[in-house]
Specification:
194 residues; mainly alpha; 2 domains; 8 helices; transmembrane; transmembrane helix; membrane
Length: 194
Amino acid sequence: MPEIFFIRKLHFIIRKCNTILLHSCIIIATGIIVSPQVSLADKNIKSQATMQEITSLMSRWQHLPEYCQVRLTEREIINQHRKLPDQFKVLRDKWLNRVGKYWAFSHHLCWGIEEFQEARLLEYHHPDRNRKLERVLSQLNFVRNAMKGRGGGYYGLWPVLLNYQYQTYLLMGQHHLAQKTLHEIQLYKKSPKK
């Protein structure tokens, strides 16, 4: 008699286990079927976000000089001071005409302009504002020193550089240095162009 009770109990447990196992299989199978759809939706959301970031980045760079937009197209190559590949030759030629012999380090000017535009959008007391403006001056001074060291100055980059230097000093409240830069701009305007 106890054996029959034990066998019935065992059958009951097996049926329960089968039901649980079946439910587990259904849940797992459903998960396998549903999860790709969820991940596809996630991918779509991510790709939309990426496209928005790219659009935002491109719209921000549209306000920069043409040579900066070329730098964005082939950033790695420019950073390594190499020539652009053949498919970019037309852009490169236009760019070289604009910046003269200083094309190799003009990306430093582009970084400075980019930092300037970002800093200008920040509130006066924002902790990153002054750091960004200091980086602007660092990049501009690098280009300035490189140009002077190569015996040039009055090329395509020079007025752009002076203009951003002047505006950066104004944003930092360094009016004495801003006036000094303004004086340089006036001298440049009066000087004979090569």
